[in-house]
Protein 1
Amino acid sequence: MTKLGERLKGKVSLVTGASRGIGRASCLQLAKEGAKVAITDLIDDEGRELLQEVREIQGNQEQNGRNAGYWHLDVSNEEEVKSVFEQVKKEFGNINVLVNNAGIAGPNKPTHEVKGKEWQKVMDVNVNGVYYCTKHVVPMMKEAGGGSIINLSSIYGLVSAPDLPAYHASKGAVRLMSKTDALFYAKDGIRVNSIHPGYIWTPLVAALGEESEVGVEEFRKQLDSKHPIGHVGEPDDIAYGVVYLSSDESKFVTGSELIIDGGYTAQ
Ligand code: NDP
């Protein structure tokens, strides 16, 4: 059995879009550091499998009650957000750590070719999702005397590239939503930060590779070469950042941008 760390002992965390990729890795690392974990996603079968893994990590914590659960949650549906957050509160208590991770890439074509519906869908998930989840977690965090909101932006919220126009717009929005909320809620002890990953090899990026003209293998090689460190990242590279921002080790960090990108934006 993995020995549990205690950096997040006693904290209730909720991760959106948690079944795969960065969200999945974050749930596992949060559990390893002793947090209670609410896993939420659209993909229920993978979410429930992850729940089993999280419970294995938590192991003998079970004797103190349930420390992890899975909930179906579409972040673009405010009613669902409200209802799931209430259920999590009933089960575990007020949420202390919210990881706004759910995100989609959207259409990869020039701006004038993007259909209104395609653009809107990206905004609904990547921007409105962060808004709804923030809106419904803040009262709980105030009640708890503080908390940490971690928003997954991207290097694409800092610098541009001639691809994924709706995604760029959405991640730029998430960057500034984080700063605004950091300022609104600093007095309540609620910290809000954004994380800006470089390319991380996850199902989201693999799908971009499958759609690309050059094929997945060449696509990955091309991505590797864009990162000064020589390769794309892996989900745990971001999950360790999530743990840091969730923990009291980052108690003086708010409105900040945690760039984890193998040097991509240093160029
Ligand atoms: P993945 O696609 O691998 O995982 C994201 C998860 O979110 C999937 O399970 C996805 O389901 C789910 N999801 C999609 N729409 C919704 C929704 N409306 N409500 C709830 N869940 C939803 O993504 P990554 O792990 O790669 O990315 C996680 C976050 O990190 C995203 O916000 C992304 O933009 C950001 N990021 C990722 C980078 C990367 O290189 N991977 C780089 C920079 C930022 P489904 O598969 O059905 O869509």
Note: The mean pLDDT is 96.
Protein 2
Amino acid sequence: MKLIAAKSILKANDQLAVENRQRFDAAGVFCVNMVGSPGCGKTTLLEALFSHLRGSLRLAVIEGDIAGSIDAERMEALGVPVVQINTEGACHLDANMTASAVAQLDLTDVDLLIIENVGNLVCTAGFDLGEHLRIVVLGATEGDDKAVKYPAIFQGSNALVISKTDMLPYTNFSIPRITADMKRLAPDAPVFQVAALKREGTPKLAEWIAEEKTKR
Ligand code: MG
Ligand code: ZN
């Protein structure tokens, strides 16, 4: 019984995700779902992307967190329209929560919507939010074995961003190893290396996102 329930929840989620995507397409909004574990640097990466894209694309952000609004406050401080979702314990966002958050935004003022998912490499993989692109962020301090240990999220992503590369000299993280694993799981997904606080590598990622937007 439990297995059937879980399957039907996912099916309902997929249907809602399709509707979210239709909504984005109708409004000319390109949507990115950013996933990664807690502390991998998603919000700092968002800040960097905003600094690069602000001249060309109107950005909005949905922040998914179990509690609090620290990340939303950081985006708000930059003048980015932001909606905070508090999942109150749930360890991922779903398409229904996304739809509720999107209803709070005026999509006519948005070109690029980035959803920062709850920090989690596990069940975020199973929930389509209606995004056009899924980007998985992995900190150089987290270990290069994560694609092997959490394959679903890497397999289901359109790009891998290795963050905190300025920390590489202090770790045994192997760029070739994670790149090979990503290549095996998602052959078409590019791999980016960024040090977001220093804005290293982030212009290239911003450029790629903007390019992907033009393809839709
Ligand atoms: Mg964050
Ligand atoms: Zn979850």
Note: The first strand starts at residue 30 and ends at 36.
